[in-house]
Amino acid sequence: QVQLVESGGGLVQAGGSLRLSCVASGTIFSIYAMGWYRQAPGKQRELVARISSGGTTNYADSVKGRFTISRDNAKNTVYLQMNSLKPEDTAVYYCWRREGYWGQGTQVIVSS
Q1: pLDDT tens for residues 7-35?
Q2: In this structure, is the dihedral angle defined by the CA atoms of residues 95, 107, 87 and 81, taken in order, positive or negative?
Q3: Which of 70, 74, 85, 97 lies 20 to 30 angstroms, CA to CA, from 32?
Q4: Burial of 44 (0-12, 13-18, 19+ CB in 10 A)
């Protein structure tokens, strides 16, 4: 059974940084695209960043230049480095694996 477990969320001041991690189990990690989505209160879940099995990345316009997604196939882990955080980045961040698998989410709160 596929499990995705996120960590690294928390409270940070605007301009600060956080690194989210997602460890996958029960899956052959390296062959699947992975990603991060987020959902703010009262809003729909939206794509933040994705990374293909080959390492190709794509980002939401709102985070380009500030966030970086990466993966370590040896550790079955995908990361999201978030720099220059803004209050509008406040949301629950979810790890995603192709074919519709989701983690439980990790809260990120950015104070102004």
Answers
A1: 999 999 999 999 999 999 988 898 899 99
A2: negative
A3: 85
A4: exposed
